[in-house]
Amino acid sequence: MAISTDPVGSGLVASLARPGGNITGLSLLGPEINGKQLELLKETLPKVKRVAFVGNPASVAFALRFKEVEIAGQELGLQTQSVEVRSPNELERALESATREQAGALIVASSISLAYRRQIVDFAAKNQLPAIYDESESVEAGGLMSYGANLPDLFRRAATYVDKILKGRKPSDLPVEQPTKFEFVINLKTAKQIGLTIPPNLLARADKVIK
Predict the structure, then answer these.
(1) What is the predicted pLDDT for the residue at 64?
(2) Helices (H) and strands (E) in the chain, counts
(3) Helices 62-76 and 33-44 sit at what angle, rounded to 10 degrees?
(4) Which residues contact 30 (CB under 8 A, 6 or more apart)?
(5) pLDDT tens, 181-211?
(6) In the CATH scheme, what architecture does the domain 33-149+181-210 have?
(7) Cα separation of the two ends of the chain
């Protein structure tokens, strides 16, 4: 596997260190991603008090990620809210619940943004609601910012697993690896549209800035 959101929770492997079966490879999520996304939102919006995490509860990683978001939020003095979207019919109502409960920003999981990218980006723009995504494609589509694993790097690393297995190594003996390279992307056009000024030090740390 080149990218798996939660290989342990989904039952693909027994543990990251000892997969134990006939599957190994790379995990998409590192433990620091959720906290880093909250930190970036806090730096962008120093006065933000509440952040909504938008995801699909059918995803095996949903509960794990939201728990990590809650812990990171407590450390940053932020309230966190879970926004669950199971189907297209629930999307608008779920997003509106975030604004009703006065969420000042969104974290959008890839389990949702990949399926409903256009609708979410449009909703965030219409409601002037800053949002951070897992993948840069959502930022290129008009989202504010993204922070997540560098996918090309994961696919390149997956090739090393293929090489080892073809040379006789057992998948059960090859630990599942987590991301080591991450990508931070900001869309300045979107920031301007929603009346937001991105701090210069944040822009300096971005891997890519869309102007």
Answers:
(1) 84
(2) 8, 7
(3) 40
(4) 149, 178, 179, 182
(5) 999 999 999 999 999 999 999 999 999 999 9
(6) 3-Layer(aba) Sandwich (3.40)
(7) 35
Looking at the DSSP assignment, which residues form a beta bridge with residue 52? 81, 106
Type of residue at 89 = N
Length of the chain: 211
Q: Distance (Å, rounded) from C-alpha 56 to C-alpha 14?
A: 23
Return the number of other C-beta atoms located less than 10 Å from residue 54's C-beta.
26
Phi, psi (rounded to 5 degrees) for 80: -125, 150
Query: Could you give the angle at the alpha carbon of 209 between the alpha carbons of 207 and 211, nearest 5°?
Result: 170
Q: Which helix (H) or strand (E) holds 131?
A: strand 131-133
The total of other beta-carbon atoms located within 10 Å of residue 5's CB is 19
For residue range 142-157, list pLDDT tens digits in order.
999 999 999 899 999 9
In 64-108, the DSSP E strands lie at 79-84, 105-108
User: Which positions ≥6 away from 141 have C-beta within 8 Å?
Assistant: 117, 118, 121
| Degrees to nearest 5, angle at CA 6 with 177 and 135 | 85
